[in-house]
Each structure stands twice: as structure tokens, then as C-alpha cells.
Amino acid sequence: MSASGDNRPIGVFDSGVGGLTVVRALMERLPLEGIVYFGDTARVPYGVKSVATIEHFTGQIVDFLLRQEVKMLIVACNTMAAVALKIVAARAGDIPVLDVIEAGARAAVAVPGSGCIGVIGTPITINSNAYARRIHALDPGARVCSQACPLFVPLVEEGWLDHPVTRLTAQEYLRPVLAENIGSLVLGCTHYPLLKPLLRDVAGEKVKLIDSAETAAELAAAWLREAGLAAGGQEPAAYRYFVTDVPLRFQTIGERFLGRSLGGVERVDW
Ligand code: DGL
Prior knowledge:
By secondary structure, the chain is an alpha/beta fold. Helices cover 46% and strands 18% of the residues.
């Protein structure tokens, strides 16, 4: 580390393009930090795969990012955070590992008098019960009601962010959790922050939407500061993106997720 700070990049990874919601939040919250992003676009989606497969893929990605000499790892994919966090931690050694489920759970329990906490995510994330376990570790008395929303990922990738089909799907998925009088709703999947306006409509103004991308960026800022790992800001922050499929689709859809143009996408040939 130089006297001007630690200018090694942060490694952020996801099953595909969705983790760019976390990158976007990091760029806004920590504009001086460089980022190396990995999206496994050739093998997405993970949310419907077996735990053994997700663990295997996760290990490969982490090894790749560690070779890029990152100073922190952020598991942007809720599905990987739900079932493969131990693999990440075991390989990371001294490198701090932050994940979206930890960030989302912390934000959920911080909502005052929220009543029941609603959680939505991919089938793997919801079936793993990872959010409920983390929320209960922080607040044993919390009530959690969860709902898998498998159709949201393809709808978001299609760009149907405010389409009648998406609205109807959301009404159907949210009906059981809304019946529990939830006070907050954790958007437990990388893609769901793009549906915020629609979900706010469907869930109603009284339900606080918890965006795990934003809360992960907040937590990253605090951890970097506390560990003395924050960048010094002498150089403009550099961003690199690695994907496993041809970059074109990632680039096109990614700009919607990132809210800005996306340069420097490289294809990884394992
Ligand atoms: N990135 C995944 C998540 O956050 C969604 C896409 C997938 O199923 O791979 O759970």
C-alpha cells in the first residue's frame, strides 16, 4: 500500500450481467475505487442450478479474481452468496469478503418496527433460507416471509421493466408476502433493483424496498475505511469487466444496468 491509499481494485462478481447493479452503486458511493468485475455470462443463470454446480463455478471465479490482485471481494450474486459463501471465504484467505445477503439482512433489521420482513429472490436463494438465517442471526425475533420470483430475471433482461406482463407477474408473486403485512421487502436478486418503480407500485408506499446493491456499497465503504484499504485517489478509478461469453450481449444489457456506457469488456477463455 502506498502512502496515498490502497489502489488495488475491488473484485465484484456475479453469474452474469446483474451484478452491475452493485457496480453502479459502488461507482456512485466510492468513485475513487477501481473495480474488476467478473460475469459468468456463458453459464448464467445460476438461480436454478444445483448447489454443487454453483460451488464449483464460484471457486473458479474467485481464483480468477484473486489472480487480479483485488483488495476485497464482493459477492454481488445473491444466489452465490446464498449457497457458496464458504467456498469464497476459504479461498480468499486474508482478503475481506462482503456479500449482498449480509448487506441486505443488515439493512432489513435496521428498518424500525418493520413487522414482517419480505424477501424475494431466485429459487435457489429462497430455498436455501440464507436471508432468513442471516436476519435471525442479527435479530432472533424477526419474522421473515419469502417468495421465489424466477420469472423476474428473464423479464428484466428482456427490458420489460414496466410492462403489463411484468406487473401481473409481480402482483401474483407478491400476493402471499403482502398478505403477511410486510413492512419491508428485500430485493434479494441482482436484477430486482431495476424493477423498483414497478415493485413500489405493486407493494404500496408503506413497504420499504431494500436494495441490496446500495446497502452493499454502503457496507463496502465502511469496511474499506475501517481496514485502511480505501483508495488514495491520485489516479482516476479504472474499471475492467471480464465475461465468459462473447461480450456483445453483456455490453448491450449491461449499459441498462450500469446507467452509463460500458467499455473495457474482455472475454475470459478458461
Ligand atoms: N445473479 C443472480 C442473483 O442475484 C440472478 C441471475 C441468476 O439466476 O444467475 O441471484
